[in-house]
Amino acid sequence: MKRSLAIVLILMLGAFMLIGCGSSVAGKYTLSSMEYEGEDITELFSMMGININDVYIELTNEGRFVMDMTAMYEGRTTGTYTVSGSTITLTSGGEDVRAVLQGNNLIIDEDGGIAVFRKN
Length: 120
Prior knowledge:
Elements: H1 2-20, E1 27-36, E2 39-40, H2 42-47, E3 56-59, E4 64-68, E5 76-84, E6 87-92, E7 95-102, E8 105-110, E9 113-119
Antiparallel strand pairs: 1-2, 1-3, 1-9, 3-4, 4-5, 5-6, 6-7, 7-8, 8-9
């Protein structure tokens, strides 16, 4: 009986460790590249004096996000997010933006533009 209880506890502990390791999308994702209509425009921002690495999306464990684009003179946006498979939907002010999680990259592909954010 004690042995069975010990095995069950070890299995439960292992399951909790797996859930906590690597399964969370929460974290800070820094902008690493941008394309518009197939052209890489990352360097264009650099020529304008904008450091794209200062642009980020931060996802919390509580389902909230902050997108800070002040380096691009766009300000900060806050809202909530949901996860369905590899799709993350950011919702703010009644509008949704969908992103796809590929490894450590969060990719937003909208209106001819692709922004790639890399998890820190």
